């Protein structure tokens, strides 16, 4: 049983580590050594990482890989991906090369509106509240001018503010529902600052509204916060070609492959158990690029999965069809991304990733990320409908298994060669390692 600790955040980094290793680890010396092994030798760079969050004790590494040959709107990209899953980058790269030879990916941003809400309680005459809002709306915009002026100079800002009556869901519950354009910024801090100012103005103006009774003036603001559900911050990416151009696997005709592929997508559209795994594969590609470019992958995940359920049933984010001999595969997905602010100017590897992509605007990054998700899904469905998912995945996973058993360089060379023509399973790898060693 460990004891609680008071004032942990006030301890130095060294003191935090000393307390942790002595309290939780049987071999405190080894634990401390391991934590320090991941510190950056550059003290200034390490301090930067220490200050990203509170109570930092070390750095947690994820591989940063690249997937080349992505032709998007006739422009060639090498896409950075930060992810630990062994087959993701290889699958994305393979899909990129496949579609490069067939005209590449097409992508376009449909809309870029983001949403924030002030949630409040009002117990009174709704007609009076509607009248009040008519006078309130211009005041909300005016009072937030100091926050919005710089964004407005760049072409963004507050797009609209609506009063929403939610009393059917909760008695006395209303919203100020605001839409924003934040351009190349993710915009979280901007939106939340505007919303908190809206809340102050709402309460102050309510006190001065003559038609309200004393009780009606007592509006209770519950919270003011942006929404990570952004169905109007939408991007579309697609690929298409003649069905006969889909030939690659000698064991299946182009027509049969196209039909099986479309059917696999349709299954994910109607079957939630399949759709969740289907969409998870899409997010393998999306999250990896979102993370590499310093964006908030948790917000993206939450918004995307809400969007997948927008019709009342969880469904596929991608769609496919065959019409007039043309195979088309596409995705429409909400992505609120930024290329300025947050970690984009702080984290050196994020800066490198954005430079690698040619310093994209937020809209361009939305297109790149959507394409990465589509490519990942194409690669997964191609495997599922032809060879099966395990063949490629386990070959990529082979090195992880070999490292788990501390295979030597010589053993790795022999085992990689062996499994070029044999099925990779965990037990098969163990068996071959034991044969080599005995």
Question: How would you characterize this protein structure?
Answer:
This protein is of the alpha+beta class and 438 residues long. 49% of the residues lie in helices and 19% in strands. Strands 3-8-10-9 form a 4-stranded antiparallel beta sheet. A hairpin with a 2-residue loop joins strand 1 and strand 2. The two termini are 44 Å apart. The relative contact order is 0.12.
What's the shape? globular
> What is the overall number of helices?
16
Order of helices and strands: HHHEEHEEHHEEHHEEHHHEEHHHHH
* Unreliable residue stretches: none
Say how many strands there are: 10
What value does the average pLDDT take?
94
What is the CA-CA span between the terminal residues? 44 Å
Which sequence of strands runs across the widest sheet? 3-8-10-9
| Biggest sheet features | 4 strands, antiparallel
Strand content: 15-25%
Give helix % range: 40-55%
Structural class: alpha+beta
Q: Return Rg in Å.
A: 27 Å
């Amino acid at each position: 049983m460990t004891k609680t600790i008071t004032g942990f955040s006030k301890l130095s980094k060294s003191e935090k580590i000393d307390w942790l290793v002595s309290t939780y680890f049987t071999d405190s010396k080894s634990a401390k050594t391991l934590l320090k092994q991941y510190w950056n030798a550059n003290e200034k760079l390490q301090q930067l990482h220490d200050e990203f969050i509170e109570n930092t004790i070390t750095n947690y590494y994820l591989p940063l890989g690249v997937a080349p040959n992505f032709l998007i709107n006739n422009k060639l990209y090498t896409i950075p991906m930060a992810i630990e899953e062994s087959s993701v980058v290889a699958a994305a790269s393979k899909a990129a090369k496949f579609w490069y030879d067939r005209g590449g990916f097409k992508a376009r941003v449909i809309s870029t509106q983001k949403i924030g809400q002030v949630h409040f309680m009002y117990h009174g005459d709704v007609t009076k509240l509607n009248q009040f809002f008519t006078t309130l709306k211009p005041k909300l915009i005016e009072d937030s001018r100091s926050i919005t002026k710089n964004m407005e100079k760049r072409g963004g800002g507050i797009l609209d503010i609506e009063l929403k009556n939610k009393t059917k869901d909760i008695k006395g519950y209303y919203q100020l529902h605001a839409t924003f354009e934040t351009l190349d910024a993710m915009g979280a801090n901007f939106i939340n600052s505007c919303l908190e100012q809206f809340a102050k103005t709402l309460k102050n103006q309510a006190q001065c509204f003559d038609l309200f009774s004393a009780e009606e003036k007592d509006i209770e603001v519950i919270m003011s916060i942006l929404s990570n559900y952004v169905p109007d911050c939408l991007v579309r990416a697609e690929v298409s070609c003649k069905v006969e151009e889909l030939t690659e696997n000698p064991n299946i005709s182009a027509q049969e492959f196209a039909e099986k592929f479309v059917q696999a997508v349709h299954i994910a559209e109607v079957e939630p158990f399949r759709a969740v795994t289907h969409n998870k594969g899409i997010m393998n590609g999306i999250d990896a690029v979102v993370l590499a470019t310093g964006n908030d992958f948790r917000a993206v995940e939450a918004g995307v999965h809400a969007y997948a359920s927008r019709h009342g049933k969880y469904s596929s984010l991608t769609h496919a069809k065959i019409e007039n001999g043309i195979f088309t595969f596409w995705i429409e997905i909400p992505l609120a991304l930024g290329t300025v602010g947050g970690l984009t100017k702080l984290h050196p590897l994020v800066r490198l990733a954005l430079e690698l992509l040619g310093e994209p605007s937020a809209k361009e990054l939305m297109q790149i990320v959507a394409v990465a998700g589509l490519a990942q899904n194409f690669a997964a469905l191609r495997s599922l409908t032809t060879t099966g998912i395990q063949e490629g995945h386990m070959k990529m996973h082979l090195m992880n298994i070999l490292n788990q058993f501390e295979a030597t360089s010589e053993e790795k060379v022999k085992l990689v060669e062996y499994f070029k023509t044999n099925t990779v399973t965990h037990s098969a790898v163990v068996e071959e390692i034991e044969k080599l060693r005995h």
